[in-house]
What we know:
This protein has eight helices and two strands; from the N terminus they run αααααααββα. The protein is mainly alpha-helical and 187 residues long.
Amino acid sequence: MPDREPFVDFYEVLQVNPHSDLKIIESAYKHLAKIYHPDHDQTADVDRFSAVIEAWNVLKFPEKRARYDEIYRLHHGHPEKPVDEQLVSADVALGDAALQRNILMYLYKARRENFRGNGVGAYALQEHFGCSDDAFDFHVWYLRSKGFLEVTEAGTLAITVEGVDHVIALHQPVQPQRLVTDQSPHG
Length: 187
């Protein structure tokens, strides 16, 4: 990246924390690329789509990301703060939402392929998404509290009816609202 180019905050473009792992960055990239894609009628934005692609093409490669992080620190200083000063940012919440959506999609697929099955082992699911124990426990707690997943008699995780409805609702096209017009006869 030549010094003459203006600095672009790729973490801000992808709406993630500079300390996010690759899974979170990838989830954010996929989510934003889908939203801003030129083929998306309601939210297409070619400039934002291009920025998202550019950010992903740097942050997905460890070597490029390391070089970018050096430039990032020149513009923002060192992003680390003492643990007691760290707050949950919007990027963390966005990453959590994306991960929870992906967990539900994974469980939905498993239920569709074998709806009488015993669910998915928690360890296998945690490994698939690369979560720490604490992060995974948080997501399972949240999704269970919402009624979207359950622990089966076999001790595995499975999507519930509410979870299936939620996944389907996430993928429903947004219907434009119709204006109510005067229905009186014109005489």
